[in-house]
Predict the 3D structure of the following.
Amino acid sequence: MDALKIKRKSLRTSFTATANKLKEYLATKEDAKDGDNLSALNSQLQDNFLRLDEVQNKISDLLLKNTATAAEYEADFEGAEDYRDNFFELKSEIEMLLNKDSGSLLESSSERDVVKLKLSKFELKMFLGDPKEYLTFWSIFSKIHDLEELTAIDKFQYLYQYMEPDSKAARLISSFPITAENYPKAVEQLKLRFGREDLLVQIYVRDLLSLILQNAKT
């Protein structure tokens, strides 16, 4: 496992360097942006993350198999999620820039006052970005998602409205301009980040291990 951790450290350093380059690029003025450079950085970021994620999964499996390192799993998991959050937030911003010419914006990215829809309120709790709450959130929000009477922009407005302000979920969704074309992309990214089956399994295993360790101490 030590060899894997050394490899992960190098991959994390590489990922962070690329992520920082992208953040600097995204902070530049609009007329200074170069689409080819953005695409290259995007490809580099995805390659870095995929290699990092592969090594991380191997480390997680080893930590779970060894009871002596079970307590280490939770801290390791949280650290890995920070990199995943960073990746998905940047990925959303990049996709928004690469596709900015397709579709018209309802409002600028700096102005996110969502229009209140004249529909009856669904009893839906604000989503913070907790994967354990995703299935419950989506089972209710899907009633809005499946309404044929609503346009994609209407559904997008509702989706944004039910994100807890300043949460991981809100940052992910707000990285997409509210357009009809971006709505399915935002829904897909929300599911990839918070509703993946493998992520839920890891979280429930982590919680179970924490419970076992607590009981062992009593």
Q: What stands out?
A: The mean pLDDT is 79. The CA atoms of residues 8 and 55 lie 6 Å apart. The helical segments are 2-26, 35-65, 70-98, 131-145, 152-161, 168-174, 182-194, 197-217.
